[in-house]
Amino acid sequence: MKRLIEILLTAGVFCGAAVASAHAADDLALRPTHSDIVRANNQVSLNVSGSYLDYLESSGSTPLDSERGWQPGLSLSGSVMTDIGLSNLYLYGNLSWSKGNSDYVGSFIGGNYGDVRQRDNAEIYNEDFRIGKGFEVNDALMLTPYLGLGARQWRRDITGAGGYREDYSHGYVGGGLLAQYSPAPGWVLGVNGLVGSTFSASMKTTATAGGAAITPQTYKLGNSAIYMVGASVDRAITDTVHANISVDYTNFNYGRSAVSPIDSTFEPDSRTSTVALKVGLGFAF
Q1: Most buried residue, 18, 25, 202, 270, by CB count within 10 Å?
Q2: Residue 18 confidence (pLDDT) above 70
Q3: How far is CA 132 from CA 17, 37, 87, 115, 210, in A?
Q4: Average of per-residue pLDDT across 101-105
Q5: Which residues contact 162 (CB under 8 A, 6 or more apart)?
Q6: Taking a C-beta distance cutoff of 8 angstroms, is the pair 245, 278 a contact?
Q7: Are 129 and 178 contacting, i.e. CB atoms less than 8 angstroms apart?
Q8: Mind listing the pLDDT tens digit for each residue in 183-204?
Q9: How far are the Cα atoms of 51, 69, 129, 137, 156 from residue 96, in angstroms, in the given order?
């Protein structure tokens, strides 16, 4: 949490500096607002982030174990809006990484949820891609429906004498909409949402030194609906340098696996929610 507060304070200072610098960029006031949206969609940006993981395994309504906590990270994104073959063709890609500790709550075999409390390690990668077409409603508003495709990998290290490593992964595909509004020259506000489905969900177990004596194997998990929403602010400091702030929320489930023929174990139902706060610099082209 201390690191998250530092990130938010940095964001506040960063935005203040961005606004002050933007007042000196007279050329921004000369551009029509709709070009600010197109310009914001033609840039590469690097962001620092704070991501909150909220994961819960359950059997019916009974909780089995959970992981919750903030992890710092980085993300690199790039987007293009061009008229090649299609007016306002929109292409977007994002790679993000976060790593840190989370609060684990679980139980001993035959015990109750909450009997075991410890700190575990978490490392998460996300890859997100979009392709769509922008429609200019007016000079200040653009709507861009898009097709989204991506993947997620989560390395979960359960520590202690009963610990081991779990690697969760899945892909997803869905449809979304990006709405962007330019209230003043140099400013672009954006909101987006996607509804889709996960696919190829799985969890691989690995024994760790000093941990539980498990049989390493891979469990195929049930797929589910996935929901992604986000909001962003893009401020052009100059024609080339932009300041970016965003928040993104994702929610999905993993369905219970089949019982393993190796040792009669299985992976239970689970649900995952994440919130990512990002701040950084973008370079328009």
Answers
A1: 270
A2: no
A3: 33, 15, 10, 49, 50
A4: 94
A5: 108, 116, 211, 212
A6: yes
A7: no
A8: 999 999 999 999 999 999 999 9
A9: 10, 17, 12, 31, 17
